[in-house]
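Next comes one such specimen:
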Amino acid sequence: TALRPVDAVVSSAREMSEADLSRRLPVTNPGDEIGRLATTINGLLARLEGAFRRLEASLARQEEALARQRRFAADASHEFRTPLTAISGNARMLDDWALEDPEAAREGVKSIKDETDRLRSLAEALLTLARGDEGPSLSVERQDLREVAAESVEAARAAADGKVSIKYAFPRHAVKATFDRGQVRQVASILLDNAVKYTPEGGNVTVRVGEGDDRAHVEVSDTGVGIPEQELPLIFERFHRLDSSRTQGGAGLGLSIARQIVEAHGGTIETRSTVGQGSTFTLVLPQKPG
């Protein structure tokens, strides 16, 4: 009958729901009025379906971000709790009886100072990450990456105090890139600090600077304990720390900060490691401004 196309459209419309916007109205004859109406409604349904999918994806991203924030807050609270507990315990000891024992008093005061420094470093690291999360604030200019590496090596040698050999052959030619000097220096220092920290006494850390394929790089290699292959994808996660051989202090935020800074420059940090032989971290920056 003449009303059969109308009945089909009505029947299909009744079967639709907000949970499934993928259904479409049947178009028996695209040339008549009912067919054109059904085609128009189908176009509207397609747009609605796309909008709902984008909304669902946005809500999923927001939920994921909220979950990360909750984990971050929980981890940060845990990291703060440990030094605060040590400070509180030593303060009570001093108040109760340690002032009568000069040696115990000195140890208690030293412990309080050490834990206070740890809290200060943790707070500064968290503030750095929070600022980075709000968006990069870079003061970039064209400069020589060799000089930044040299400054970081000099500071690392002073901190290592001869326990680890740090080698750096200053390249003959300039290695130019556009970057924020202070922030890239911080990344190089983080990589060097980790290399020294996880290299046994008498081991070697080697720093190389080079360029190629429109990219400049600083490579930091060590002869340390190495990182298990399954852990490599996780090492840049906030508060992530590996087994006991790689938990010599710190909150596990250094590499997170390094990655955040490098990605703000449009660069990457490449890693490779062999357990028992050592690790190599390579800071890579684009030489052409993004």
Observations:
- The CA atoms of residues 17 and 66 lie 30 Å apart.
- The chain has a mean pLDDT of 81.
- The chain has two domains: 1-135, 141-286.
- The longest helix spans residues 33-96.
